[in-house]
Amino acid sequence: MPTLDQYLTAHAAQFEAELCDFLRIPSVSADPAHKNDVENAAQWVDAKFRKMGFSSEIIPTSGNPLIYAQSPEVPGAPTVLVYGHYDVQPADPLELWTSPPFEPTRRDGNLFARGATDDKGQVLTHINSAQAWLDVHGRLPVRLKFLIEGEEEVGSQGAEEYLAANASRLACDCVVISDGCKFSRDIPSITYGLRGIAYYEIRVTGPNRDLHSGSFGGSVTNPATTVARILSAMIDRHGKIQIPGFYDDVVPLTERERQQFAALPFDEAKYFAELGVERAFGEEGYSALERRWARPTYDVCGLWGGYQGEGAKTVLPGKAGAKFSFRLVPNQSPEKITAALARWLPEITPPGAKVELLDFHGSPGVTIPLESRYVAAAARALEQAFGCAPVYSREGGSIPIVGKFHEALHADVLLLGWGQDDDNAHSPNEKFSLADYHCGIKASARLWEELGKLA
Ligand code: BES
Ligand code: MN
Ligand code: MN
């Protein structure tokens, strides 16, 4: 009988081929044109679980389907709920991809495709490690339940509704999520905080049609100028968000946590150099890690209006708009931010412009206590798999459902990212390093073992 490590080595090519199959399905949740692809991805995941001998079902929701799969109970061992998502972000702008986003391509030890790191590759690490345990030992050391959803990238509404109504079915001792990054190339991390988010679009209208900007300009409101004015009113030169009351519920960073962040092996100069920016920018008085992990921030994610083609066109556009979001820290409520924004918007809107505010999705930030035996078991597993003890870090991104796991299941969440900061999640040329993929499978296999030792 092979050892588990021998099995993983022998099956490396098969694991890679399966990930490629999964990545070929363009399951973009934001775009209704991909409804069928989303469906196909759900079926792919369900079929994979059935092949492994898990009981699995596709569950319809108000939005995209969920897959729920489970293995038999293991008496005396914990039950672990693995959560992940099979939906992906839109691949645009397509022209910036070196190889097509849904034709997984190997280059320099990486697999390039939309969803490679976020989150299909990371989801498959946990499925493959379970498969390995079953094939090598004929059993799993813990009971595994899997909840894999198709709307994480658009706010997780269906999964949250299902969780609220099916807490007993999903009951578990801890939740495991791999949908993020290691601390750096070779240092694994246990993530104990995520930011929340509040995401909006504004649609601005002025005159009832596009106008000659010479004949009419200066006499009526210009929607594009209005968009620029509103967007820039949101933040001042010192990086402070200007919505009245925005910071009311923000929990300040403690001196202790600031020291812990500062003690992490993070090289700011290297970070900015890799991103191609000459110097830091952000809220005054905070380090880059503090700004990314533990301070609320504001980003414009898209804006449009007026002439976008070659050369100059003198036009006063009748319409313009923008998409923007606030990243929130724990204790800030997205609903309160929406109310404060809606109240303030008329004050910063110039006369004659009409502004419609669309509220897309919101979720609160979370922090997770580290004093748990599950965290300790995860730390042991990561150290065995990566040959390096994990650091404890927060992340700037959001996973909307995480806070709900604690509420509904009273279970702590282990956030164990296998990706890298430079994996280009949400960007062109998204990738997952094949080494990270295989290490993730190994770490996951060790995790089941370590969690299984907890009676
Ligand atoms: N996997 C990310 C979240 C993430 C990013 C965690 C980086 C840790 C590090 C997730 O798929 C994601 O992108 N979430 C969205 C949520 C939103 C659309 C509601 C995000 O953060 O933008
Ligand atoms: Mn993700
Ligand atoms: Mn994502």
Describe the overall structure.
- This protein has 455 residues and is of the alpha+beta class.
- The chain is 35% helix and 21% strand.
- The chain contains 13 helices and 18 strands.
- It has a six-stranded mixed beta sheet with strand order 1-2-6-3-7-17, sandwiched between helices.
- Strand 1 and strand 2 form a beta hairpin.
- The two termini are 27 Å apart.
- It binds ligand BES and manganese (II) ion (2 copies).
- One manganese (II) ion binds at residues 85, 118-119, 152, 179.
Q: What characteristics describe this protein?
A:
455 residues, alpha+beta, Aminopeptidase, Alpha-Beta Plaits, 4-stranded antiparallel β-sheet, 21% strand, globular, binds ligand BES, binds manganese (II) ion
Total domains: 2
Query: Biggest sheet: strands, sense, closure?
Result: 6 strands, mixed
User: Can you say what the CATH homologous superfamily of the largest domain is?
Assistant: Zn peptidases
Mean pLDDT: 97
Largest sheet strand order: 1-2-6-3-7-17
Helical fraction equals: 25-40%
Q: Count of DSSP E strands?
A: 18
Query: Radius of gyration from the CA trace?
Result: 23 Å
Quaternary arrangement of the chains shown?
Answer: single chain
Would you identify the CATH architecture of the largest domain? 3-Layer(aba) Sandwich
Unreliable parts: none
Strand content: 15-25%
Span of the ends, CA to CA: 27 Å
**CATH class value of the largest domain:** Alpha Beta
Question: What is the count of helical runs?
Answer: 13
CATH topology of the largest domain: Aminopeptidase
Outline: globular
Cofactors and ligands: ligand BES, manganese (II) ion
**Structural class based on helices, strands and sheet pairing:** alpha+beta
